[in-house]
Specification:
The protein is mainly α and about 775 residues long. Among the domains are: about 240 residues, Leucine-rich Repeat Variant, CATH 1.25.10.10; about 90 residues, no CATH class; about 100 residues, no CATH class. The chain contains 34 helices and 13 strands. Helix 24 packs parallel to helix 26. The two termini are about 75 Å apart. About 40% of the residues are buried.
């Protein structure tokens, strides 16, 4: 007692404070979600393998798309098995594709804050000595930002600032990566010192680094509405000659006005009246972010007006896409708003209508949205088809075949588009990306503007805004990782550990909310029977040859029929004079001509002369000859023979009946077995038990209940908030605290990792500057 009293805080109180700090900083949520994503990962690596082999190996665009799709599929799962198995294939990425490939590691390990430096150590800039490619180093800095996105970490911020300082004179690519990384780490912090550093990079007036610096300023100043930042960015956007920097500044201005609504009006109005279309483009996203999720009538009216009146296609595209942001809180109303726009003569407007539907209706499988996107998937313009397949991928995130058949048809269509060598590369790029989006986060994450409690997520709105900039810059596709949120139900003890023996009941058929079935590798027989290509000229030549052969057969068959008729008559005459000898003659005639299915010439049987016709005439002749020969024989012997034959026939009949009965029985049994096989499968259960931690989709929440018994035993854990919460983190009450707890521990994961992974990471890539 006395020593404890002397301490300021007891051990327990210190531990509680540590837990509280973890909870308030968001670190506890990140770590628990990471565990869930790792344990429940259902990514289909065979699907990636099929995509990899379907696309042209020399095409850098589809290669880049496959790497990015893999990143999204494995987002937050920490599983990079596919990349490690295909290092040689991965090394084909060069220049900016290499930057994106390295950055995708950040997407895969998103949230793995503790290990971030170790994971990227091979790729991060090394001091002195031989350096790796600046593209992979820049990508690693960007990846560092993605891993720490939305979780402020002073140490990482310091490291990235240091890199930004040291790279000022080295390479734009590294500055680009460092700026984006810094923006993500310090997102929405309104940190003045970071802003000043980024401004210095912006003012160097180099297009690539300047664009990233502007985006980063927007990320740091999200929703600040700072007049100083606004005035400086506007002024620089008018000064610079680089379109990239102007676009970066325009979007940064939009981000600073996030959720500012009426406060943003003066800036939006000023940008809309600007003669530079890029600033008007930024103004549309300004409306999108200022009024995100409000369904504000004034904002909708203004965006619709811009979408039909502006002279720039880019501005019209931005205006229509922004409708998806403003109406994201009532996605069911969006299809009616963009219906006419989706039929516009302008392909940019059609593309934007598709993307708006995908953004607002993500994961909802909305039928009206599907009906608008379906015709756009076969649009005449390549980029409209791309937008439609990406939007459809968003629409069907986490949708099982059990809930709608439309998703099965769409998945098949995607694989067909990816494998079609005649399809435009932009559409194939979209289809590969759509696969990654549909199965994002190991099939355990959804793209959602709102948190589980219905609060708008800043990260999601900003992520979607930057994701749509892929039109200009592919590496921004990785920003989609900000949008993803795990669809998990995780039961926790008071120490924030995950117990194994907690379960919930889902009162719906398992197939309705099931994971998609993994693809099966083709069987060996199917692989052997690969279809061979037949040229049209070869087919014509073959048909002509067959026709000639058929004509020749018909002629021969006609002449042989005449010959046969003469032969038959002579055989008949001979039979009447020579009696028994006729049998052997007839026999030879039959053996020569009556091979089943052939004529005398040995070709396929025709109607002109069939073997059965030939045989039947000969048999009649034999019967007549036999009758004449036997007339002189003894009648008694004949009778005896007939009696013997009759008794034998009776015996045979008895045996035949018996065997017939047996055959009937066998037949019936066989039919019975067939009937049993053909019987409908056991009816699908109407409910299922889900073990902790489990995936619970939005539509599934209403079916979730907490059973009082599991496997006939009373449930040990009961939720503290029993009636209100059915998804997310659920604190549990232990009804039997004296018993030992069975918990999922972090060290289990690391052991599994060590077993699965190779002991040392391989060298990243080998590139030469000539490539």
């Amino acid at each position: 007692g006395a020593p404890e009293a002397a301490d300021d805080l007891s051990e327990e109180a210190k531990e509680n404070l540590t837990q509280l700090r973890k909870i308030l900083s968001g670190r506890a949520c990140i770590d628990l979600n990471l565990q869930f994503m790792y344990r429940n990962n259902r990514s289909d690596l065979l699907l990636l393998e099929i995509i990899k082999t379907s696309v042209d190996q020399k095409n850098s665009i589809t290669h880049n798309a496959t790497v990015m799709a893999h990143g999204l599929m494995q987002c937050g799962t920490t599983s990079d098995v596919f990349l490690r198995k295909n290092l040689e294939w991965l090394a084909k990425a060069t220049k900016w594709a290499q930057f994106s490939a390295t950055a995708s590691l950040g997407v895969i390990h998103k949230g793995n804050i503790k290990e971030s430096r170790a994971i990227l150590s091979t790729y991060l800039p090394q001091g002195g000595g031989q350096r790796a490619s600046p593209y992979s180093e820049g990508g690693a800095l960007y990846a560092m930002g993605i891993i720490h996105a939305s979780h402020y970490d002073p140490e990482t911020k310091g490291y990235l600032l240091e890199q930004l300082h040291s790279q000022q004179s080295v390479a734009e690519v590294l500055q680009h990566g460092a700026c984006l990384g810094l923006g993500l780490v310090c997102m929405a912090t309104n940190d003045e010192s970071v802003y000043e550093e980024l401004k210095q990079t912006l003012y160097t007036d180099t297009a690539v680094a300047g664009e990233a610096a502007a985006y980063a300023i927007g990320l740091v100043m999200v929703g600040s509405g700072s007049e100083k930042v606004v005035s400086e960015l506007l002024a620089y956007a008018h000064e610079t000659q680089h379109e990239k920097i102007v676009r970066g500044c325009a979007l940064a201005l939009a981000m600073t006005m996030f959720r500012r609504e009426e406060e943003a009006e003066s800036l939006i109005q000023q940008m809309l009246l600007d003669k530079d279309p890029i600033l008007r483009y930024g103004a549309c996203f300004g409306i999108a972010l200022a009024y995100v999720g409000t369904s504000h009538n004034g904002a909708i009216r203004r965006l619709l007006h811009i979408s039909v009146s502006d002279v720039s296609d880019d501005v019209r595209r931005a205006a229509v896409m922004s409708l998806g942001f403003v109406l994201c809180n009532v996605p069911d109303q969006l299809p009616a708003v963009v219906k006419l726009l989706s039929e516009s003569y302008n392909p940019h407007v059609r593309y934007a209508a598709a993307m708006a539907l995908g953004i607002a209706c993500a994961g909802s499988a909305n039928k009206d949205a599907h009906n608008l996107l379906q015709p756009l998937m076969s649009d005449a313009t390549d980029f409209v088809r791309q937008g439609a397949v990406i939007a459809m991928g968003l629409l069907y995130m986490q949708t099982s075949v059990g809930s709608t058949d439309r998703v099965k048809a769409f998945r098949e269509k995607l694989l067909k588009v990816i494998g079609d060598k005649h399809e435009d590369v932009m559409t194939r790029f979209g289809a590969i990306l759509a696969n990654g989006i549909m199965d994002a986060g190991g099939r355990n994450a959804n793209a959602s503007f709102f948190s589980k409690s219905g609060v708008l997520r800043p990260g999601a709105a900003i992520g979607f805004c930057l994701f749509t900039q892929m039109w200009y810059w592919f590496p921004l596709i990785h920003m989609f990782s900000l949008v993803l949120t795990p669809t998990a139900l995780i039961g926790l003890t008071e120490k924030l550990k995950i117990p194994k023996n907690f379960a919930v009941k889902s009162g719906a058929r398992p197939s309705v909310f099931a994971y998609p079935e993994p693809l099966q590798p083709p069987k060996k027989e199917e692989q052997a029977k690969a279809a061979t290509a037949v040229l049209s000229t070869a087919a014509k030549a073959k048909a002509l040859k067959e026709k000639k052969e058929k004509d020749a057969e018909l002629k021969k068959a006609a002449s042989s029929a005449d010959v046969d008729m003469d032969e038959k008559s002579s055989v008949a005459e001979a039979a009447s004079t020579r009696g028994g000898d006729a049998v052997s003659v007839a026999g030879t005639a039959v053996s020569a001509a009556a091979t089943p299915g052939t004529t005398v010439v040995g070709s396929v049987a025709t109607d002109s002369v069939a073997a059965s016709d030939l045989g039947s005439d000969n048999m009649e002749v034999d019967d007549q000859a036999a009758a004449a020969a036997s007339a002189s024989k003894d009648a008694a012997a004949k009778e005896a023979a007939s009696k013997e034959a009759a008794s034998k026939a009776a015996e045979d009949k008895g045996e035949a009946d018996a065997s017939g009965d047996k055959k009937d029985e066998d037949k019936k049994e066989g039919e019975g077995e067939k009937k049993e096989d053909a019987k409908p499968e056991a009816p699908e259960p109407t409910e299922e038990i889900l073990n902790n931690p489990c995936r619970v989709l939005k539509a599934q929440q209403q079916h979730i209940t907490f059973p009082t018994e599991i496997d006939g035993k009373p449930a040990r854990y009961t939720p503290v908030l029993r009636g209100t919460r059915r998804v997310g983190f659920l604190l549990l009450q232990d009804t039997r605290p004296d018993e030992a707890e069975e918990l999922f521990l972090d060290d289990e994961k690391t052991k599994e990792d060590q077993e699965e992974q190779e002991p040392s990471p391989p060298e990243p890539f080998e590139w030469s500057e000539n490539e």
